Amino acid sequence: MVHSRARRNRKEKNNNTLTIKEPKTMANLRFEVVAEAFRKKPLEITAPSERPSEYFGKYVFNRAKMYKYLPVGVYEKLTDVIDNGARLDRSIADAVAEGMKRWAEENGVTHYTHWFQPLTEGTAEKHDAFVEHDGKGGMIEEFSGKLLVQQEPDASSFPSGGIRNTFEARGYSAWDPTSPVFIIDDTLCIPTIFISYTGEALDYKAPLLRSLHAVGKAAAEVCRYFYPDVKKVTTNLGWEQEYFLVDESLYSARPDLMLTGRTLMGHDSAKNQQMDDHYFGTIPDRVQAFMKDLEVQALELGIPCKTRHNEVAPNQFELAPIFEECNLAVDHNMLLMSLMKRVARKHGFRVLLHEKPFAGVNGSGKHNNWSLSTDTGILLHGAGKTAEDNLRFVVFIVETLMGVYRHNGLLKASIMSATNAHRLGANEAPPAIISAFLGKHLSDLLEHIENSHKADLFVLQGKKGMQLDIPQIPELMIDNTDRNRTSPFAFTGNRFEFRAVGSEANCASAIIVLNAAVAEALADFKKRVDALIKKGEDKVSAIVDIVREDIKTCKPIHFDGNGYSDEWIEEARRRGLDCETSCPLVFDRYLDADSVRMFETANVMHRNELEARNEVKWETYTKKIQIEARVMGDLSMNHIIPVATHYQSRLAKNVQNMYAIFDQAEAARLTARNVKIIKEIARRTQTIETGVEELVDARKVANKISDERAKAIAYHDTVEPKMKEIRYQIDKLELLVADELWTLPKYRELLFIR
Ligand code: ADP
Ligand code: MG
């Protein structure tokens, strides 16, 4: 819309003619944007002449570049920090900064920024130029270790849940050397954590790093029961990013998409995803051009893109990289999301990362494939060659389940948001109850261990080591084809796939909780095993005892059935799993005594940080619904009702005309249908009007509440339901009103033009 008008103006100016055109009606504009979108051709992308392996990481200060641009001693100290968690020696910071600057300048970089992840859904950056006064009236390019290591971005407007009001107003960003710096355009981006003056985390990265440390330490200790030489355990994350693309012209004619990221109204398209013809279908040319462009840029930034395909809903797609160390994977996902938005615009698309942009078709998630590995291999990998391998495998599976079981409500809280709430429990994607799917092989295996006597289960055979009567863990399990799409947390061969994560979310939110929960379970496991060993029990026997006990304890979390069925909700309730669906109430789980204890023991977060974050969560929830409600009110009054009454008048005019032409009886017969529609429009617009008034009133009442939690609950209970009622009426009107008058691009246009 914006485009075409601007182009027209330009043309008129160039011709030096001043013709005043009839103002177009909004409906004309809809046809105009539809036609414009339809005509767009794929952008011609010139692919790089090198192979991907050659340009991979081109704009990343990776190992090879560190080696090239840093003095040997500095390189060694820095890699020691990255690989072994050694303390950062401030004395090397200047040399590192100097090397980074040299590399960056060779790539045309003039600015640098601390790049961090505040408690909004995006990333934050504030660019500073390398220039400094040279003391002689001129300027020089400078970048010191001090500037690399720490900054005070005075980012006082980010949500902090009160931490920065009650303590110290300052927020600091501090360099995370474990995630390499990278270049975007003319700017050197330095991944950092963001913390308050008093050390509270104000971001996602700081607690993520603490949780990685916690689970790594706990896992390494348990690992040493089996492999005494294990040095460290790392967490892996492979995310799968789902998204929608919408043509930019159509997008610009949908104020709801622009302001809220989703359509607040819109009748189902007659055809949507019924035929399953989009899933894995041929990728449309314009989309393919976008994907290629995106992939090249992502690879240059070191994001190992691997998979791309059409998703289930029309205009829905997915991109997945190869899994990486978790901290890096999280950064890469944040980076990719912002990159997608930029590249999409270049191709005349808008990317929708919202979890539910369109009612009636699938929403978007971000499966988080999570696993632990040692310096020698993956811990959740089944097909071990030795009895030790098999027992180790069972231990890590069962203790992950223990963590998920004990904190199932909290895990749900970690993925819950105003936007993801549309997806959860909506008969698609994962249900709003966290359970774990194990598949037949693994279920049988756990059952076997649970039911067999210890003496039968294993025998110690002198020098040969132990023999376990654990049924052979088949190679097949690695490629677990028994895939249950309805489970929010599924074992898929060598990893768990946390599927409930929202497409827009920072993966860190879910992973922080998962790591902390598994860290707690492993530490607790070790404590109990050690206690038995101390009492004189043999190590393997002690491990089997405790594992068997835990298999029994965490049984309620294990569910291989259909997660969408009503029976499951009843069953889950009986099992004591968290079944809450109200988003503001789900957030309460963060402040449960068990949760606080878990976070504090693992040193991931402390009570005041958790309280502050919950304030932010409730406030964000309220604001999102508030914005939606306002947009809903505006669209109802400014688009829908005027269009509907306009059509109604047209029909009324026709009725009048008919009476002028035909006799009473004949006219009555001929206009019956129109009269019926006139009445229906009157009824529906009236309901919408009252609905909007009630919506405004409900908001006014809620806005007076000062407690953030209570306010969010009010928005959930009284504001949101009103929007559903209004939408229902609007969608009915869409079917009733003449197509040529309707101003908002329809679902069939938004979802099918590409
Ligand atoms: P799907 O589950 O839809 O088949 P893909 O195979 O495309 O998905 O993606 C699965 C993701 O899981 C990829 O990012 C892949 O790298 C990642 N992955 C594979 N093995 C592991 C593992 N052991 N730990 C973590 N992530 C893994
Ligand atoms: Mg997957």
UniProtKB/TrEMBL annotation:
Keyword tags: Ligase
InterPro entries in the cross-refs: Gln-synt_C (IPR040577), Gln_synt_N (IPR008147), Gln_synth/guanido_kin_cat_dom (IPR014746), Gln_synth_cat_dom (IPR008146), Gln_synth_gly_rich_site (IPR027303), GS_Type-3 (IPR052725), GSIII_N (IPR022147)
The keyword Ligase is annotated on this UniProt entry: yes
A molecular function (GO) term: glutamine synthetase activity
Catalytic EC class: ligase
All copies of domain GS catalytic, residue ranges: 204-640
Pfam families: Gln-synt_C, Gln-synt_C-ter, GSIII_N
Cross-referenced SMART domains: Gln-synt_C
One GO biological process term: glutamine biosynthetic process
EC number(s) stated in the UniProt entry for this protein: 6.3.1.2
Domain GS beta-grasp: start-end pairs: 110-199
Family in the record: Belongs to the glutamine synthetase family.
The protein, known as: Glutamate--ammonia ligase, catalytic domain protein
